[in-house]
Amino acid sequence: MNVHAPNHKSTVETPQRSDSLDTLRQWLSEGGKRKLTEEELVAVKCLLPKKEDYPVFNTEYPHDFEVNKDYASRMPDLQNGPAAMIKGSRQSIQHVGISNFRLPLKFRKKDGGELTLETSVTGSVSLDADKKGINMSRIMRSFYKYSESTFSFEVIESALNDYREDLDTFDARIMLRLSFPQSIKSLRSNLQGFQYYDISVEVVDKKNVRSRYIHLDYVYSSTCPCSLELSEHARKERNQLATPHSQRSVARISVEILDTDILWFEDLIDICRSAVPTETQVMVKREDEQAFAEMNAANPIFVEDAVRLFCEALKADDRIGDFRVIASHQESLHSHDAISIMCEGPTFDQNTFDPKMFSSLIHVG
């Protein structure tokens, strides 16, 4: 309720104001939740200052209201307002759009099968310095036209073309994030279990040049070579039982896809597994646990070794252009992590990185 200055001169007679106050007090004594009748609204209105055409608003949702073209054309659109409405510096913006727009999408497997996976979509465009903003729902509407299609880079590029044209922009990008399942056999017991891989697929259009990228988090175990040698030294020299330290480790692999044969998700996973075979296990019996211990002993690696091994395997595949490897060994010896970054080519090379990048590499159960 509006509160008005006490010096307002009422044109309503005292008896009428008294009746209006009684009506208001009665309504408040009932809790103030009941809808006032038309008569009560008129009575309470007498307590308000005299104004010409003071509106009484409808407070019920109009279920039967329909928007026609004329009504829609008269609705305000601040996002597409004139440049005079811009706040702050009148400069172009590199990225503006939506993040974590989720929908189920179909993905092909290398063996010819198909999966429907919940996918998080990030879509952004550039914005000219003299434009107020964009209509963000157009990004979602453009992408929804392809939601029944099976994923391919061509499908993503078609969606990108549509919303770039709809929003009249010079640069644009789409990123899809998903958890890709793959059935993995145990090392010796032949049990099967699903490993889930965090994968992102990205298409970037910058200055009319198209680029395609895949990002993969590969989770593995790393046994410290120094700790292994020290443990063996204690056994040999002093007959002292000792164990080397090993830890869950994560490599975030980002690769540029060249216009050659398809690089399947399974292919990139296999490349990582061939470089560092100590991938964490899904289903394990005693014989598998022993096998994993043996595999770790056969492949001890520092974090520097890890990025170089991944680099060697990625460079050997002619479907891959520039790439970056970010590795984090989340130490069981130290209360800090061992980290390393290696870039091939200029695409991913940069002077700085996200301060929270390495904390995002922690994978929990």
Structural features, described:
This protein is α+β, with helices and mostly antiparallel strands. The protein folds into 2 domains: 1-65, no CATH class; 102-361, Roll (Urate Oxidase). The chain has helices at 14-29, 38-45, 69-73, 137-144, 153-167, 225-238, 265-275, 286-298, 303-315, and strands spanning 93-108, 114-127, 172-185, 192-206, 209-223, 246-257, 320-329, 338-344. Strands 1-2-3-4-5-6-7-8 form an 8-stranded antiparallel beta sheet. Helix 4 (137-144) packs antiparallel against helix 5 and helix 7 packs across helix 9 (303-315). Residues 1-12 have low confidence and may be disordered.
Features:
about 375 residues; alpha+beta; Urate Oxidase; 2 domains; eight-stranded antiparallel β-sheet; 9 helices; 8 strands; about 30% helix; about 30% strand; elongated; disordered N terminus
Topology:
Elements: H1 14-29, H2 38-45, H3 69-73, E1 93-108, E2 114-127, H4 137-144, H5 153-167, E3 172-185, E4 192-206, E5 209-223, H6 225-238, E6 246-257, H7 265-275, H8 286-298, H9 303-315, E7 320-329, E8 338-344
Antiparallel strand pairs: 1-2, 2-3, 3-4, 4-5, 5-6, 6-7, 7-8
- Distance between the amino and carboxyl termini: 53 Å
Going by helix content, strand content and strand pairing, the class is alpha+beta
What is the domain tally? 2
- Helices, by number, come to 9
Q: Based on DSSP secondary structure assignment, what is the total number of beta strands?
A: 8
Q: Return the average pLDDT rounded to an integer.
A: 88
Output the CATH topology of the largest domain.
Urate Oxidase
Helix content: 25-40%
Biggest sheet, open or closed, and with what strands and sense? Answer: 8 strands, antiparallel
Extract low-pLDDT stretches: 1-12
What is the general shape? elongated
As laid out across the biggest beta sheet, the strand order is 1-2-3-4-5-6-7-8
Order of helices and strands: HHHEEHHEEEHEHHHEE
| CATH class category label of the largest domain | Alpha Beta
Report Rg: 32 Å
Question: Which CATH-level-2 architecture of the largest domain?
Answer: Roll
The CATH homologous superfamily name of the largest domain equals Urate Oxidase
Strand content: 25-35%
